[in-house]
Amino acid sequence: MTPSASPLSSQSTALQVRLAAREGLFSGHTSGLASAHVQVNLVLLPAALADDFGQFCERNPVACPLLAVTRPGQTDWPALGQDLDLRSDVPRYHLWRRGERVAELTDLSEIWRDDLVSFALGCSFTFEHALLAAGIPLRHVQQGRNVAMYRSTLATVPAGPFAGPVVVSMRPLRAADAIRAIQITSALPQAHGAPVHLGDPSLIGIADLARPDYGDAVELRSDELPVFWACGVTPQAALQAARPDFCITHAPGHMLVTDLLHRAPTTP
Amino acid sequence: MTPSASPLSSQSTALQVRLAAREGLFSGHTSGLASAHVQVNLVLLPAALADDFGQFCERNPVACPLLAVTRPGQTDWPALGQDLDLRSDVPRYHLWRRGERVAELTDLSEIWRDDLVSFALGCSFTFEHALLAAGIPLRHVQQGRNVAMYRSTLATVPAGPFAGPVVVSMRPLRAADAIRAIQITSALPQAHGAPVHLGDPSLIGIADLARPDYGDAVELRSDELPVFWACGVTPQAALQAARPDFCITHAPGHMLVTDLLHRAPTTP
Fold first, then answer.
1. What is the CA radius of gyration of chain B?
2. Residue B187, domain CATH
3. Which residue in A has a C-alpha nearest to residue B200's C-alpha?
4. What is the C-alpha separation between A243 and A231, in angstroms, rounded?
5. Chain B residues touching residue A183 (CB < 8 angstroms)
6. Could you tell me if B72 and B139 lie in one domain?
7. What is the domain count for chain A?
8. Quick one: A248 and A116 in the same domain?
9. Max Cα separation, chain B?
10. Chain A residue with minimal CA distance to B189?
11. Could you tell me the pTM of the whole model?
């Protein structure tokens, strides 16, 4: 039995997920798959824009925690995984032209360019893994939904053509869990770190929690606070502002699964 | 000039504050005095009750962070200060009998008993020092008021006759400051640690923030969250439940100033 012939699960290895994507056997969400392993947001840009985008990440480390960058044209990534191919190992890619999403792809071989620089950014799956391990319930996970995301009035620090709002993800938590979640995620700066806001959504420009800009709405109960983290969709908003001629990202929720292991969560 | 002849200030040494209290020259609040030094809550109990009260502290370390305990009858406390006299160095004491406060005293010489065991418990002044050092504004400090305190519906874990509610202190903070305050105070378990609640006061049984059970009310603005920490008045509520024949505490806000130095606050 080849790795990709078995159904993917939380127990899969990262390589099994990547091979299944590469072989065209899997093009779904990666939430919960190979759960011991770090998943990352991907941005692939022409080399001419790489310095500006790298600086944008450095100036906005909470929204855009930069984990690794390739050389131009590099298709493997030994720092992130053995036998990794950037052209095929993400289940689903988005192709962007001048700030508009023009195609959804499962393989980049036809459009690969030798000037592409790839950026791997930390992902909230890492801190969600730590929160769940600490026994903190996450409603969107329980309900099998995508997390609710909103364009906030918090602004990123621009770099070159890259600018725009901080996009935040929201998780409803009871106060005691919110306090523990702040403690736990403060120790995970490579995955968005501590929340950027909690409580009244209107203070960061969110008029209606029931109408997220991305993802799925979830119920907020009367004994819960909405807790907002900076989100890995922030770079996509910056790409829409910068309108590069050519850019590739992962499709939201369809992440690159790396060989890196989550740190064991520590309870403060 | 003797130490006590000069006016006390944030720059005073701990010994200067203690000597001024000992010599009857000072009987006021210690908030802001000798600000480099740790101030502590005091509970003095007959030795027959010491084991139960010590266990109460151990079972409720957030509300009652036990820093040090004396032998029965001990009046000095080298671990907490040079030339320290427990009978005179607190600016104001309360004498309790059967759970009722029966006297306010500035000196215990007349009523000292050789079976008294003294307990030093961490104090919120320590974490307030760290919050202010991090640039987080505290309204009651700005307004020169006592902090607002409330009996909550959170319960302590009983030990012997000691039981009762967790008393909480409330500070109004903007969300970003609340998040930083959680990070900072999480690192100070010897001074009540992280908040126990934030947001809706009714969830911990507080009907009206404008009517605190102890201390002074402060305004809560529309862009702020009420943030609640376990408070050093909790042991006094437990003493009222236990109704010991004889007990001494400091008067709220009139603390024992120790020679211990605050740790340098670290910003996460």
1. 18
2. 3.30.2040.10
3. A223
4. 20
5. 182-183, 186, 194
6. no
7. 2
8. yes
9. 54
10. A268
11. 0.87
